[in-house]
Design brief:
Helix content is 35%, strand content 18%. The protein is α/β, with parallel strands linked by helices. The radius of gyration is 16 Å and the shape is globular.
Length: 206
Protein backbone atom coordinates (compact mmCIF):
# COMPACT_ATOMS: atom_id res chain seq x y z
CA UNK A 1 0.00 0.00 0.00
CA UNK A 2 3.05 2.28 -0.15
CA UNK A 3 2.16 5.44 -2.00
CA UNK A 4 -1.56 4.67 -1.97
CA UNK A 5 -4.11 7.44 -1.62
CA UNK A 6 -5.13 8.00 1.99
CA UNK A 7 -8.67 6.74 2.45
CA UNK A 8 -11.24 7.55 5.12
CA UNK A 9 -12.23 5.19 7.89
CA UNK A 10 -15.64 3.56 7.41
CA UNK A 11 -18.48 5.04 9.45
CA UNK A 12 -22.20 4.43 9.90
CA UNK A 13 -22.57 5.36 6.25
CA UNK A 14 -25.34 4.72 3.80
CA UNK A 15 -23.97 1.75 1.88
CA UNK A 16 -21.26 -0.81 2.58
CA UNK A 17 -20.16 -3.44 0.07
CA UNK A 18 -18.55 -6.79 0.91
CA UNK A 19 -16.71 -8.33 -2.03
CA UNK A 20 -16.49 -12.12 -2.09
CA UNK A 21 -14.35 -13.83 -4.76
CA UNK A 22 -16.45 -17.00 -4.56
CA UNK A 23 -19.68 -17.96 -2.85
CA UNK A 24 -18.77 -18.54 0.84
CA UNK A 25 -15.56 -16.47 1.05
CA UNK A 26 -16.94 -13.28 2.61
CA UNK A 27 -19.63 -14.95 4.70
CA UNK A 28 -17.27 -17.60 6.07
CA UNK A 29 -14.78 -14.85 6.92
CA UNK A 30 -16.89 -11.93 8.14
CA UNK A 31 -20.50 -13.11 8.07
CA UNK A 32 -21.08 -11.98 11.63
CA UNK A 33 -20.00 -8.46 10.71
CA UNK A 34 -22.19 -8.51 7.60
CA UNK A 35 -25.19 -9.42 9.76
CA UNK A 36 -24.64 -6.45 12.08
CA UNK A 37 -23.98 -4.08 9.18
CA UNK A 38 -27.18 -5.20 7.45
CA UNK A 39 -29.16 -4.25 10.56
CA UNK A 40 -27.75 -0.70 10.54
CA UNK A 41 -27.28 0.31 6.89
CA UNK A 42 -27.70 -0.80 3.30
CA UNK A 43 -25.31 -3.71 2.84
CA UNK A 44 -24.45 -5.46 -0.42
CA UNK A 45 -22.60 -8.74 -0.88
CA UNK A 46 -20.97 -9.04 -4.31
CA UNK A 47 -19.91 -12.55 -5.37
CA UNK A 48 -17.50 -12.24 -8.27
CA UNK A 49 -16.81 -15.71 -9.65
CA UNK A 50 -19.17 -18.55 -10.51
CA UNK A 51 -18.32 -22.25 -10.10
CA UNK A 52 -18.35 -24.74 -13.01
CA UNK A 53 -21.75 -25.57 -14.52
CA UNK A 54 -22.01 -28.96 -12.79
CA UNK A 55 -22.31 -27.33 -9.36
CA UNK A 56 -23.25 -23.74 -10.17
CA UNK A 57 -26.97 -23.98 -9.39
CA UNK A 58 -26.35 -25.56 -5.99
CA UNK A 59 -23.59 -23.15 -4.98
CA UNK A 60 -25.58 -20.10 -6.05
CA UNK A 61 -28.63 -21.34 -4.14
CA UNK A 62 -26.46 -21.69 -1.02
CA UNK A 63 -25.16 -18.15 -1.54
CA UNK A 64 -28.68 -16.72 -1.85
CA UNK A 65 -29.84 -18.57 1.27
CA UNK A 66 -26.84 -17.40 3.32
CA UNK A 67 -27.27 -13.77 2.20
CA UNK A 68 -30.93 -14.02 3.16
CA UNK A 69 -30.03 -15.14 6.67
CA UNK A 70 -27.73 -12.12 7.08
CA UNK A 71 -30.21 -9.68 5.59
CA UNK A 72 -27.93 -8.30 2.88
CA UNK A 73 -28.52 -7.72 -0.82
CA UNK A 74 -26.70 -10.22 -3.05
CA UNK A 75 -25.20 -9.38 -6.44
CA UNK A 76 -23.69 -12.31 -8.37
CA UNK A 77 -21.47 -11.29 -11.27
CA UNK A 78 -21.02 -14.82 -12.65
CA UNK A 79 -17.48 -14.52 -14.02
CA UNK A 80 -15.68 -17.86 -14.57
CA UNK A 81 -13.47 -18.88 -11.65
CA UNK A 82 -9.80 -19.73 -12.16
CA UNK A 83 -10.19 -23.47 -12.66
CA UNK A 84 -12.69 -22.78 -15.47
CA UNK A 85 -10.70 -20.13 -17.35
CA UNK A 86 -9.10 -21.32 -20.57
CA UNK A 87 -6.98 -20.17 -23.48
CA UNK A 88 -6.21 -21.75 -26.83
CA UNK A 89 -4.01 -24.43 -25.23
CA UNK A 90 -6.32 -25.47 -22.40
CA UNK A 91 -6.89 -24.46 -18.80
CA UNK A 92 -4.95 -21.40 -17.64
CA UNK A 93 -4.42 -22.95 -14.20
CA UNK A 94 -3.72 -26.65 -14.58
CA UNK A 95 -3.26 -27.75 -10.99
CA UNK A 96 -4.38 -26.98 -7.46
CA UNK A 97 -0.88 -25.61 -6.77
CA UNK A 98 -1.20 -23.15 -9.65
CA UNK A 99 -4.29 -21.72 -8.00
CA UNK A 100 -2.15 -20.73 -5.00
CA UNK A 101 0.32 -18.70 -7.04
CA UNK A 102 0.27 -15.23 -8.58
CA UNK A 103 -2.22 -14.53 -11.38
CA UNK A 104 -0.88 -15.24 -14.84
CA UNK A 105 -0.08 -12.26 -17.04
CA UNK A 106 -2.45 -13.53 -19.74
CA UNK A 107 -5.38 -14.10 -17.37
CA UNK A 108 -8.29 -12.01 -18.72
CA UNK A 109 -10.07 -12.04 -15.35
CA UNK A 110 -8.25 -8.98 -14.01
CA UNK A 111 -9.73 -6.63 -16.59
CA UNK A 112 -13.13 -8.33 -16.43
CA UNK A 113 -13.34 -8.02 -12.65
CA UNK A 114 -12.33 -4.36 -12.73
CA UNK A 115 -15.06 -3.51 -15.23
CA UNK A 116 -17.71 -5.55 -13.43
CA UNK A 117 -17.12 -4.29 -9.89
CA UNK A 118 -16.96 -0.67 -11.01
CA UNK A 119 -20.64 -0.96 -11.94
CA UNK A 120 -21.75 -1.94 -8.42
CA UNK A 121 -19.64 0.53 -6.42
CA UNK A 122 -21.43 3.85 -7.11
CA UNK A 123 -22.94 5.08 -3.88
CA UNK A 124 -20.74 2.88 -1.68
CA UNK A 125 -18.88 4.53 1.17
CA UNK A 126 -16.99 1.44 2.39
CA UNK A 127 -15.82 -1.68 0.57
CA UNK A 128 -14.48 -4.83 2.21
CA UNK A 129 -12.06 -6.93 0.15
CA UNK A 130 -10.19 -10.19 0.79
CA UNK A 131 -6.72 -9.79 2.28
CA UNK A 132 -5.46 -12.23 -0.35
CA UNK A 133 -2.12 -13.32 1.08
CA UNK A 134 -1.29 -17.03 0.92
CA UNK A 135 -4.78 -17.76 -0.38
CA UNK A 136 -5.97 -18.08 -3.99
CA UNK A 137 -5.29 -16.46 -7.35
CA UNK A 138 -8.91 -15.30 -7.65
CA UNK A 139 -8.67 -13.54 -4.29
CA UNK A 140 -5.57 -11.64 -5.44
CA UNK A 141 -7.28 -10.58 -8.67
CA UNK A 142 -10.34 -9.33 -6.81
CA UNK A 143 -8.37 -7.40 -4.19
CA UNK A 144 -6.15 -5.71 -6.77
CA UNK A 145 -9.06 -4.86 -9.07
CA UNK A 146 -11.03 -3.22 -6.26
CA UNK A 147 -8.05 -1.22 -5.04
CA UNK A 148 -7.40 -0.03 -8.58
CA UNK A 149 -10.93 1.09 -9.45
CA UNK A 150 -12.47 2.32 -6.18
CA UNK A 151 -12.73 6.07 -5.77
CA UNK A 152 -10.36 7.63 -3.18
CA UNK A 153 -13.35 8.77 -1.14
CA UNK A 154 -14.36 5.16 -0.46
CA UNK A 155 -12.96 3.46 2.66
CA UNK A 156 -11.31 0.13 1.78
CA UNK A 157 -10.99 -2.54 4.47
CA UNK A 158 -9.35 -5.95 4.11
CA UNK A 159 -10.62 -9.11 5.78
CA UNK A 160 -8.48 -12.22 6.40
CA UNK A 161 -10.17 -15.13 4.62
CA UNK A 162 -11.31 -18.28 6.38
CA UNK A 163 -9.89 -20.94 6.30
CA UNK A 164 -6.65 -19.52 4.84
CA UNK A 165 -6.15 -17.13 7.76
CA UNK A 166 -7.81 -18.85 10.69
CA UNK A 167 -5.14 -17.56 13.09
CA UNK A 168 -4.04 -14.31 11.40
CA UNK A 169 -5.15 -10.76 12.10
CA UNK A 170 -3.05 -8.84 9.56
CA UNK A 171 -4.82 -6.41 7.22
CA UNK A 172 -4.17 -3.71 4.65
CA UNK A 173 -5.19 -1.07 7.17
CA UNK A 174 -5.89 -0.88 10.86
CA UNK A 175 -9.51 -1.98 10.84
CA UNK A 176 -11.70 -0.40 13.49
CA UNK A 177 -13.59 -2.68 15.84
CA UNK A 178 -16.82 -3.73 14.16
CA UNK A 179 -19.82 -5.44 15.76
CA UNK A 180 -20.10 -9.15 15.04
CA UNK A 181 -22.99 -11.59 15.47
CA UNK A 182 -21.52 -15.11 15.86
CA UNK A 183 -24.96 -16.77 15.91
CA UNK A 184 -25.89 -15.24 12.56
CA UNK A 185 -22.44 -16.11 11.20
CA UNK A 186 -22.85 -19.78 12.08
CA UNK A 187 -26.38 -19.94 10.71
CA UNK A 188 -25.27 -18.50 7.36
CA UNK A 189 -21.86 -20.17 7.12
CA UNK A 190 -23.19 -23.68 7.58
CA UNK A 191 -25.47 -23.25 4.57
CA UNK A 192 -22.44 -23.67 2.30
CA UNK A 193 -22.48 -27.44 2.69
CA UNK A 194 -21.07 -28.10 -0.79
CA UNK A 195 -17.84 -26.22 -0.09
CA UNK A 196 -17.64 -27.43 3.52
CA UNK A 197 -17.69 -31.05 2.36
CA UNK A 198 -15.17 -30.34 -0.41
CA UNK A 199 -12.71 -28.65 1.96
CA UNK A 200 -13.21 -30.50 5.23
CA UNK A 201 -14.57 -33.91 4.22
CA UNK A 202 -17.82 -33.53 6.13
CA UNK A 203 -19.97 -30.58 7.09
CA UNK A 204 -19.57 -31.52 10.75
CA UNK A 205 -15.81 -30.81 10.55
CA UNK A 206 -16.43 -27.24 9.39
Amino acid sequence: MTGATTRPEPTRAERWVFVSPHADDAIWSVGGIIACCSAMRETTLVTIFAPPPDCRATREAEDRAAAGVLGCRLVSLGLPEARSRRNETGNLYRSSLALRRKPLANDPAAAAVGSAVAEVFPGASAIFVPLATHSHVDHVIVRDAVLACAEPSIAIMAYPEFPYHRHKTESLAQNPALPCDPVAWLAAATLYSTEAIAMFGTQERF
